[in-house]
Amino acid sequence: MAANVVIGRAADAAQLAVRAAADVAAALDDALAARDLALLAVSGGRSPLGLYRALRAQDRGWPKVTVVQVDERCVPPDHPDSNAALVADHLLRDAAAAARWVPFFDTLPEAPDRPDAAERLAAAACARLAPLGVMLLNALKLKLSLQVAGFDARFHAYDWRLGIEHLALELNARIAADGGRDVLLVGHSMGGAVALACALRSHGGPKGLVLSAPALAPGQAVPSLKAAVLRLLSKFSPDTGALTLPAAAVSRDPAVVRAYEADPLVYRGAVPARTLVELLDAMAAFPDAVPKLKVPVFVQHGTADSLVPLAATRPLYERLGAPKLRTVRMYERLYHEVYNEPERERVLEDLEAWLESQH
């Protein structure tokens, strides 16, 4: 996607560090003002150390800031080359010492030279990040698992208050910016509806599609009176909450549900009327559109999903594109977030196997 880039020039490294620290501090201020919390993801190596030293002395509401790593070396935390040690020594001091610190791991897993070391380190990283909440853990675990398997996995954030068609156009633009059609999309729930709308577009789009419990059909018929009320609310009071999603329906794992409920980054209010109407309009168009899908599609759905019931979406799965391009996996007893269920490893293995088959 297009972005505005401002290029500046500093007299030396020290001045550059001060300027960069000011930019990061301003971003933290914006996050704290908007959400009363902030997440700061920091890089390792020695290049950002001047920035860290300049940033740590600034009073920026550090108790409400969580600091995480974006990369780490396979060394013990007390090793001179440990990124965690560098962050702790150069950033988490002075005022910044009050920040919440979540390193990848406390101790290096045993036998780091084993062939499966990268996978075990990824699991350790996910375990350390679990307190940040199930949504972050779910997406991060999926991304790490795909990266361990050799895929270039990237996130695409979207504003779910916008219409599905708008979001599909936005996603198409992102795919074009990332190199065109050599992209496989993975979409979950409402994100699955966005991903499918993107793939159904005649120009551009992905070369393949993975749908995890996609919200392609309403769980039950929406009475005409209720639909009319929703449309009135959408027009005159679009932010009015109209649907509450129970956290217990996300996963059968109690720890996942507790993390979901405690996660400040998870929206726990009622889904706004405007969002529901936009989604219902997209759902109404899918039955006629899905047979026109031209790319391979892989669907994963739990049979006990109550947020997007399988009974509502199964008829669409049976018409998704050509039969030879369609693979559907249904998992007995699994809830809505199949990548976050106790059987997640099997679900991820199925996903990786399908992705491998597309190369």
Structural commentary:
With 359 residues, the protein is α/β, with parallel strands linked by helices. It has two domains: 13-108, Rossmann fold (3-Layer(aba) Sandwich); 164-357, 3-Layer(aba) Sandwich (Rossmann fold). Helices cover 42% and strands 11% of the residues. It has twelve helices and nine strands. The strands form three sheets. The chain has a four-stranded parallel sheet with strand order 4-5-8-9, sandwiched between helices. The longest helix is centred in the first third of the chain and has 23 residues, at 13-35. The chain starts with 12 loop residues before the first helix and ends with a helix.
Write the layout of secondary structure elements.
Blueprint: H1 13-35, E1 38-42, H2 49-56, E2 65-69, H3 83-90, E3 100-102, H4 117-129, H5 134-148, H6 164-177, E4 184-188, H7 190-199, E5 208-212, H8 224-236, E6 241-243, H9 254-262, E7 271-272, H10 273-289, E8 297-302, H11 310-317, E9 326-331, H12 344-357
Parallel strand pairs: 1-2, 2-3, 4-5, 5-8, 8-9
Antiparallel strand pairs: 6-7
Helix pairs in contact: 1-2, 4-5, 6-7, 8-10
Give the C-level CATH assignment of the largest domain: Alpha Beta
Radius of gyration: 22 Å
The number of helical runs is 12
What is the second-level CATH architecture of the largest domain? 3-Layer(aba) Sandwich
Strand count, sense and barrel status of the largest sheet are:
4 strands, parallel
Q: What is the name of the CATH topology of the largest domain?
A: Rossmann fold
Helical content band: 40-55%
* Spatial ordering of strands, largest sheet: 4-5-8-9
Query: How would the global form be characterised?
Result: globular
- Compute the average pLDDT: 82
Number of strands: 9
Structural class: alpha/beta
Order of helix and strand elements from N to C terminus: HEHEHEHHHEHEHEHEHEHEH
Low-confidence runs of at least 5 consecutive residues: 130-137
Strand content: 5-15%
Q: CATH superfamily membership of the largest domain, which one?
A: Alpha/Beta hydrolase fold, catalytic domain
